[in-house]
Amino acid sequence: MSKRFSAILATLALVVAMAGPTLGQQKKAPAPAAANTQTAKVTVDAKGFTPSSLELKANVPAKITFTRTSKDTCATAVVVPDYKINKELPLNKPVDVEFTPAKSGDVAFACGMSMFKGKIVVK
Ligand SMILES: [Cu+2]
């Protein structure tokens, strides 16, 4: 009885050991999709957005990371009206703005009061 039990345990252990690497591969599967994301970084300081013009591809998920590096700026938020995005920009804390540009053309972004402006050129 106990021999049989340990045989079952051994079988289970083997199954887990074999499934382990497979599960690991399945978890990695979304990685290529993430590689499909286009990324950009924008710094926000007293002069506004740097760069103030970005280029993105249409129909590819985009992640733009905004980092405000100065407290002497009114740009404490970033607004992308076309995509109904409005995000606070805490000092020195990277904030990801994610959306998929739907069509080619210019997409404007700005600080909360539209004093600083930038644009995303979608190709
Ligand atoms: Cu402003």
Task: Report on the architecture of this protein.
The protein has 123 residues and is α+β, with helices and mostly antiparallel strands. It has two domains: 2-33; 36-122, Cupredoxins -  blue copper proteins (Immunoglobulin-like, Sandwich), CATH 2.60.40.420. Helix content is 27%, strand content 39%. Strands 3-9-8-5-6 form a five-stranded mixed β-sheet, with no helix packed on it. A four-stranded mixed β-sheet has the order 2-1-4-7, with no helix packed on it. The longest helix has 27 residues, at 2-28. 17% of the residues are buried. The structure holds copper (II) ion.
Give short descriptive properties of this protein.
123 residues, Immunoglobulin-like, binds copper (II) ion, 5-stranded mixed β-sheet, 4-stranded mixed β-sheet, alpha+beta
List the helices and strands and how they pair.
Blueprint: H1 2-28, H2 30-35, E1 38-45, E2 48-50, E3 53-56, E4 62-68, E5 77-80, E6 85-88, E7 95-99, E8 105-111, E9 117-122
Parallel strand pairs: 1-4, 3-9
Antiparallel strand pairs: 1-2, 4-7, 5-6, 5-8, 8-9
This protein binds copper (II) ion.
The site of copper (II) ion has 7 residues, from loops.
Summarize the structure.
The protein has 123 residues and is of the alpha+beta class.
Strand-pairing-aware structural class: alpha+beta
The CATH C-level name of the largest domain is Mainly Beta
Spatial order of the strands forming the largest sheet: 3-9-8-5-6
Task: Identify low-pLDDT runs.
Answer: 11-17, 20-25
Assign a percent range to the helix content.
25-40%
Q: How many DSSP H or I helices?
A: 2
CATH topology of the largest domain: Immunoglobulin-like
Number of structural domains: 2
Q: In this structure, how is the largest beta sheet organized?
A: 5 strands, mixed
CATH structural architecture of the largest domain: Sandwich
CA distance, first residue to last residue = 70 Å
Rg of Cα set: 23 Å
* CATH superfamily (homologous) name of the largest domain: Cupredoxins -  blue copper proteins
